[in-house]
């Protein structure tokens, strides 16, 4: 079945979906309704459930799987699902939440193995030990969490997938620019966003924790490295270097890094992070756009819209 | 004897001074000379030592006390000392380095006692214990270090004096605005710049340490609070609140705070820090300016110069 | 009775309220309705009056006191009042507008007396005379006007209350930093926003006057000082100093001050003004927030939301 | 004789010049010298007077006319005058200061007459009376002062010449855009910089007065209009409009206007002021540049340098 | 008949209008409706057509002329047309699209003649030939296109009218500032926005072409000049100068000019372009505002609103 | 022999060097001297030649090879060469300019071959033909020019080397992100800076041409693509796409791109360009710095200095 985000206005809908978000509203005529955001693996879509009272509110909580029927229509330039029928799925329907969650294109096992390989290649024992220690400490959430709550890699295992993609790029770059220190760059990549496992609340439907809000994943992780070094009884410059890699990876003070990169590897970490995040965002909107047309505007890409050239499809044929 | 910075062009000089800084130069005619910065408690002044070879270079290292004779002249709007005689002080001269260092107007003992009193007033045991623990851990450098290497409170015990002034202001403000939490604000003030004892190298002639450069005093202190909490086996929200106070006290991302203040007390800490630093800077330049004239431009005050009104002196009489 | 802004969704409402604002609308189904903003001393709340034609429009004009019944519900994260009954109050209801207006926590008499005391303490006769002259000239509106139309001190006597709070802070600061000239700072505080009595139209439901829009309260007040000096036949530097205090009190050109502060007292006036305004804003949103939760975003505080720590309430018990 | 700024490196110099500025210096070898800035009507040029002691300092004060001999050489991309001989001019030399001052291309009489004509054309009696009153009050300095101390129109009668050029442009524009109110625009132009007669100290070698520094010519002039209206017993909207024209003529808060233009005529005043100032600056540097070359960088024109095309000279022939 | 934009709330409407834009919507009650933007020569107005299904959607496409009846009401501070009747105009109605399109105040013939005259006055044969060649090549769209899709000169022949107004201003300015090269300035004005004939899709209801989006009118026109020079076998500096005039006419990089003006004429072109665009915008909103009131905010004028003084109407009488 | 930039203060110098730049100066004592910048393949160093008159000026013009003796000393934190002897090299010295010019680490032949291979891999015939056509047209300067006059790749064949490095990165990235169109990205890389062959004057000691200054390499190249398409009689969307790649490759308007990237490949081109330029800059300064020390500040890297960790050298051993 075609993913919900690939349907066009007029297409009928008759399938199971997961409720991602639910908000109550009142029409200008004073009647209550629900705004529901449904999702499947392809993304999400909005719908309105009119004349929905307290009972509906209880039945259609986030994380509920529902069976819906209706069709797609266009509302202010975005697709919406016009509901004709909706009911919560029951045990007999034989569907489970995992079926509706976007997930990384690689399995947790594949990614774990690949990460292990990168750590194995490190020659500096201090960097290797700290990285291994922290990866082990946060193994489970690190492999399951998204890399963000929106914009990019906001899916199950998004964080690990982002890290693996970045490591592959790093592997190429340390060959192209041999003055880069491989160990520092690899460790920086593996740890740079690991603080998100404490900044965010969960692997699915993540929100910000109090700690996440008050400290942020950067400071959380700088602390974690200090603690790891203490537990491993390490006291050498590499600890500072790793902390600096994390601290500076947003590149500029105004983007949340209290220190700008002062190591070549820190600068490169910032570039690699940026490229992988931006490519994922551009690829997603362009893949949903027809040749000769423009994508919707993407806020996180300076609100630009992108053009999908005719040659993309001509060259394939 | 009048402080070196209060002399006017034409005034003769014949006194002991401390060498603060020495730089070698070569005249455009190819001859070596030294640029010396002398200091006494009133501040510093520049001088040139012409035809100065390797021997002079060895004799006039920073931290050396010298006997100088000469006069003051004006060079590009700033006073310089024109050297006629110079020699290193010897044991018989009976002068010591402390005589030449600007120091806080309060003694270390007075300030220690006052700090103790503020901590004693705290009611929240967690905040009190962490503050006391850290103050004890870094007692000595905390009482001796400057608050910065330049701009403001850059003198012996400048950090402690800055903190005491801020606490006094805080005491007034928690009375004026009773919704402010006194403990959080007092602790935030005491700890906000304590990381400088690791960011800077020494109480006198301080430079930035590697740790100071790569992490900065904010991240250093956030780590210290985490470590203190661990040692004291404290795990409560107050730890996060204190870390946030430190993290946000520069007020904005572009000023080095990865998170903006999200607590009323954090916002107030930022204001109090700012006022005390700026007052010290303005007071210093205005006190050296004559009525009806303008101060030199102060880079850290948006490069403004300030006017000293006639009424300052009229009203006194 | 609990103030309207302290009610929670589900709470019933049955009380008198003042209409602060009324706007006509048309539902998407083409029917007219009114959006009413009611207020009592605790603040304001929005409500919709459906199917409201010309008669309702006439009856529910701003400044009308009404008796309403209904309940509170949450709409897009903000409380609204769902109207079940509404009627204009009549003479028998025995309610008056003043009952619904937020007003300063100090009476006009208390504040007048306190202001007089500060002026009495001034030693410089020129500054004292000009300040007294202008305070007398605008006595009545100065004691009744708000300090702004929104954001902070936007209540009856808000301007005078803001000034009194600032004077108390100034009293502390001139003791802490004795190089500050007390007379200049006190006079600057008293006069800094006095131009608002001409910039705004009234003490209640204030809008901007033509003069307010075209000149602004800063230029208005600079002119007033010039005129006062002329009438008092004063021609001395103090007049320029006072004008500069007013001119520069927004701190920077981009915030509306054509000259940045060039006097120590002008810089301090800017800080004190800022602190008092910001504290009032933060205090208000935090006092309406539960422990462990975040306030709504405050536009005038860089759109931040603030966290209300658990310890606020724990420490009280 | 060719103006001093039109000479090229290698050209001999033997003429009278006026000392515009004198600064003492000390060579790196410890010898005193003077840096002299000479001027004639074409502009100014720097020179060094080596081995210059107290006597030279007394003889070569600013505003002294001297006879100099030497040649032009290029120092870091700018022409300098290499002095071979210098002596103060005496009565017999029969030269006077006016011979060396750049002055407007129109005489004071011509400009006065033209100004009178523009005021005569005004139809609104209020605007006409205020403009005439103020022009009369400051007639003498207004006709003699420069428009600025540097950058543009910084010559004798520069202010009046700037105003006359702007009025001519305004005359064209009110015909092209008839919705512009001629009286308001003319009066705004005549008064916009009149405050400079109090902001600056003198027609020649002007510096900023205390009033100029603390208030600025904009606020000075807004006050003057208020005072004029009072004296003429005028109390109508036109007074506010004129004050707003002055207040907003720098266009934006960050350029010193506490209010942005809110009248069509105020916006136009800002444009006309800008064009006339910028044209004068560009014209001056381009006129001193050879075809196919670039001018020096002009700080007040965003530090740009301008290209002088070959066709300028080809088309002439 | 009064233009649609000059009607006031309550005024009845019964006339022909052109549909400029149509958008489908769904009410919060789930019913489809159309948002229609009608226009006549005075501007445009919004209306809602309730309960509008597929048939209405087909009938009321953009560019359709309709007969409407209803009245004007005010919705959130803007006038709307409340529809009571609507039908497409038929052949018998005897109305044509041109009747509803705003058009330049000068005829195409008048403007063509005036343009020819300016080109005739040029003395530099290279500049003259290139300008004439390009004007001839794009004669038809150049005389018909708007100067923009919104903000200013967005009407039929708006581009040509903008150019003619600018040329008249230039004619005055080359006389006032004779160092300006007339040929370069005239040619720059004529060509500066000619690229819009390729950037935009049509003279009416213009949208951006792919070429317009990817390259922009500036780069398009720089290419056109290169091509023209090639075809005319011209290879001289004037070609570069003309290209630079186009390239830099937005004034700054952040406004879309990859090079800032480096020619005096390029700087002036930027000023003239700006003045003519801004005057048109201000004039339009002020002409629709009553004396003593403020215009709506104009986004393209830094979101300012303008004041219409009482004297505008007093002086007329 | 060790490169000139790798010597330390105190090291003797006795070798051939190339004069890169020569400037005349006058000491504060009035004596002429020359400031010479010498270069060898490792970089450049400054020296002063005292008492240098017209004869020296003639002998030591830029591009002259000289034999020098002297030693290295430190002047204001930078190394200088203190000259003891200098003479122009003669034919017998058997040295040639090429020996002193930094050049790309790959030969022109290697790079040509590699470029050919990338073009060979293109599948889209339009893109392939245009790229091949332009590469052929500018083959010689393209293979010899630097990529810039300073900051990065400012050496012989720097442009080609920069392009080859970027292509290698692109090859990796199109595999990692298969939605990228390889042809568009490769062609964009090859052409993006090709306009520099017209913007700069020569392969060695390059300055900006008039065309370079007035149009810039971006506009030059957009024109070249248009011309190539015309000559090859190609009229398809790919031409616009290529022009857009060039136009947008600086990423933002304020960095000189009149259009921001609107193609995924254009965004990636910007990233690749940036990474290769920055790596070259960082690598150079870090390679000249000792472990545990900081590099000089690099203006083009936001004036940062970088830290060279101890582990770089520890890990090697």
From TrEMBL, chains A, B, C, D, E, F:
Keywords: Exonuclease, Hydrolase, Nuclease. InterPro entries: HD/PDEase_dom, HD_domain, NA-bd_OB-fold, NA-bd_OB_tRNA, YhaM_exoribonuc/phosphodiest. The keyword Magnesium does not apply. One of its GO terms (molecular function) is exonuclease activity. Residues 162-278 form the HD domain. GO terms for biological process: rRNA 3'-end processing. It holds the Pfam family tRNA_anti-codon. Transmembrane segments: none annotated. This is 3'-5' exoribonuclease YhaM. It comes from Jeotgalibacillus salarius.
């Amino acid at each position: 079945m075609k993913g919900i985000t690939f349907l066009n206005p007029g297409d009928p809908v008759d399938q199971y979906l997961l409720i991602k978000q639910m908000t109550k509203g009142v029409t200008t005529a004073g009647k209550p309704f629900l705004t529901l955001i449904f999702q499947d693996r392809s993304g999400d879509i909005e719908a309105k459930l009119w004349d929905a009272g307290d009972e509906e509110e209880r039945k259609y909580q986030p994380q509920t799987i529902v069976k819906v029927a209706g069709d797609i229509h266009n509302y202010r330039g975005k697709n919406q699902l016009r509901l004709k029928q909706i009911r919560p799925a029951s045990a007999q329907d034989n569907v489970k939440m995992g079926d509706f969650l976007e997930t990384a294109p690689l399995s947790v096992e594949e990614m774990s193995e690949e990460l292990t390989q990168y750590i194995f290649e490190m020659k500096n024992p201090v960097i290797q030990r700290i990285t291994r220690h922290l990866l082990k400490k946060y193994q489970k959430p690190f492999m399951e969490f998204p890399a963000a709550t929106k914009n990019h890699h906001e899916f199950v295992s998004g964080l690990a997938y982002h890290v693996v993609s970045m490591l592959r790029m790093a592997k190429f770059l340390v060959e192209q620019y041999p003055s880069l220190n491989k160990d520092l760059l690899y460790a920086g990549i593996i740890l740079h966003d690991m603080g998100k496992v404490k900044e965010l609340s969960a692997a699915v439907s993540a929100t910000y924790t109090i700690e996440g809000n008050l400290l942020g994943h950067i400071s959380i992780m700088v602390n974690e490295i200090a603690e790891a070094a203490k537990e491993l009884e390490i006291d050498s410059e590499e600890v500072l270097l790793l902390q600096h890699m994390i601290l500076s990876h947003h590149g500029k003070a105004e983007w949340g890094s209290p220190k700008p990169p002062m190591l070549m590897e820190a600068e490169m970490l910032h570039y690699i992070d940026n490229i992988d995040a931006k490519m994922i965002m551009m690829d997603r909107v362009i893949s949903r756009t027809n040749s000769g047309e423009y994508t919707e505007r993407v806020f996180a890409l300076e609100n630009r819209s992108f053009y999908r050239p005719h040659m993309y499809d001509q060259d394939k044929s």
